[in-house]
Amino acid sequence: MKKSPIWLIPYLIPLFLGAASLKITGASTIQPIIEKSASEYAKNHSVAFNISAGGSGKGMKDSIEHLNDIGMASRSLSAKEEQSLIKVTIGFDALAIIVNQHNPLTALTQKQVADIYSGKIREWRELGWSEGGKIMLINKEIGRSTLELFEGYSKLTHPNRPNAKLENSIAKERFDIGSNLESITLTAGMKSAIGYVSSGTADLSIKAGSPIKILSLDGIVPTKESIQSEKYPIVRGLNLAYHKNAENPEIAPFIDFILSQEGQKIVQSFGFLPITKDK
Q1: CA pseudo-torsion sign 95, 100, 101, 106
Q2: Which of 119, 146, 152, 270 is the most buried (most CB within 10 A)?
Q3: Neighbours of 107 (CB within 10 A)
Q4: Which residue(s) pair with 93 in the sheet?
Q5: Where is each PBP domain found (predicted)?
Q6: How far apart are CA 19 and CA 46, in angstroms?
Q7: DSSP letters for 251-270
Q8: What's the topology of domain 94-228?
Q9: Residue 51 and residue 25: Cα distance in Å, rounded?
Q10: List of long-range contacts for 177-180, beta carbons under 8 Å, 24+ apart
Q11: At what angle do helices 145-154 and 56-64 cross, to 10 degrees?
């Protein structure tokens, strides 16, 4: 019999007691916020939580097909998704380009990022790092919102997408991975690597000692000020969504908790920005 992760146990106990439940799936970027919020919320509410990642695409698909109660998406909803779902923005984040801390580069332009990921630039010496060797591309798999954001910024397309054109595609020589943690782990472990992840997650990882660093894009570093002003080129909302015909009465109270002052402090504790700018 497969055992549940240990961190799920406090959330699942109420389920065995006949309490209400919430199933939440989707973006790995948002998952830590929801796990912490669920832990705090469960202290005063008899609700069992079942929380899992899988990507924004999965979260929205699950919500549309009534396979969850709430979906997590670290991107905007598509027009098709908005036909069926109600979206609630709980915070803001940015997409950061990361490299190993041994990499001497501090900045890239949009064109340089596109040339690196298309394979036009294959070695770090072409950007001034003579000892860098061949560039190792850390990319995201289809279904991840970070990939979609990166595609929008770089003007490149994942080669496995339908009708992808070779001249505008991400290079074939790459590592396709899922979560932000995987990308950070690989970039930290390979001096020649480059990847892209949530800036909030990257900041926390750096503070925890991960040997990576964030590069500025087009001369702008992803800071609180540059993200709130949207001067940084890749800003995104962190969204929860549920079906317009959802009947679970626990959905609204839990989302209200995340939007409360206490909930927004949890959002900020993970390096993200709250929905209201500081006054």
Answers
A1: negative
A2: 146
A3: 13
A4: 236
A5: 20-262
A6: 6
A7: HHHHHHHHHSHHHHHHHHHT
A8: D-Maltodextrin-Binding Protein; domain 2 (3.40.190)
A9: 6
A10: 177/138, 177/139, 177/140, 177/141, 178/28, 178/53, 178/55, 178/140, 178/141, 178/144, 179/28, 179/53, 180/28, 180/29, 180/146
A11: 120
Query: Pairing state of beta strands 85-100 and 193-198?
Result: antiparallel
Residue entry with tokens 């000020």: 225
Tell me the C-alpha distance between 21 and 183, whole Å.
32
For the chain, the 3-state helix, strand and coil shares in percent, each to the nearest 5, are 40, 25, 35
CATH of range 6-92+237-269; options 3.30.300.30, 3.30.420.10, 3.40.190.10, 3.30.460.10: 3.40.190.10
Domain regions of the chain by residue span: 6-92+237-269, 94-228
Whats the size of the chain, residue-wise? 279
Distance CA(111)–CA(230), nearest Å, equals 20
